[in-house]
């Protein structure tokens, strides 16, 4: 199983949308996909109609030693399963102070599910938290959706610093890739930000930026009516996925200092 963390320490940059669309495109290629909602806000889960209260089985249970097989649920989309967010995830931060080893809980759960899926996509929270650290410790690739707006570069920089920290502690480099999102080719800001993204050391930038597309605005319809998926946005995700797959065996870049 390949494990991709979809992460950025900024909200609203297209993490959840990217997780949903890449999952759909991977499933269309015949892959078995597991989506893991690591954001206590649970937008990915809500898109599939799963509410965090009352708590379903889900991500929190993985931190109590439950297996992915016992908490993953069907999504209505063939070949995509979901580990849903639970409100109790918010309490994990407190527990991590007293319970060593919690940083690898997700890693352990995914290792045990290795034969059940071809891909796991981890939809990360926008905060530097135990859940994000778990994702970075478990993944072999970090995909950073980055809005093509100068303000979004701070989130990217924070994310790259966190990645470097986790890489050092686990003694292994990640493949780090930027997926430019919310791209408006008519604006100079979008162009300039894209150029700037290409100057960051230790990351590669997807040459297929994801354009603004109103059809990508509604996560619930992406999740529940994938047959209606068409248009520039999803086509760009298909191209981006192709690029991600082609670079699948890329060696991790030299980590940035
Ligand atoms: P994050 O998970 O990083 O917080 P989301 O994926 O939830 O970000 O996206 C933030 C908002 O932007 C959502 O309302 C989403 O529907 C919208 N959105 C994301 N990508 C696009 C896009 N390419 N075009 C138009 N709207 C988008
Ligand atoms: Mg999100």
Automatic annotation (TrEMBL):
Domain of life: Bacteria
One Pfam family it belongs to: AAA_31
Annotated ranges, domain AAA: 1-169
UniProt-listed InterPro entries: AAA_dom, DNA_Partitioning_ATPase, P-loop_NTPase
PANTHER family associated with the record: P-LOOP CONTAINING NUCLEOSIDE TRIPHOSPHATE HYDROLASE, PLASMID PARTITIONING PROTEIN-RELATED
Listed name of the protein: Chromosome partitioning protein
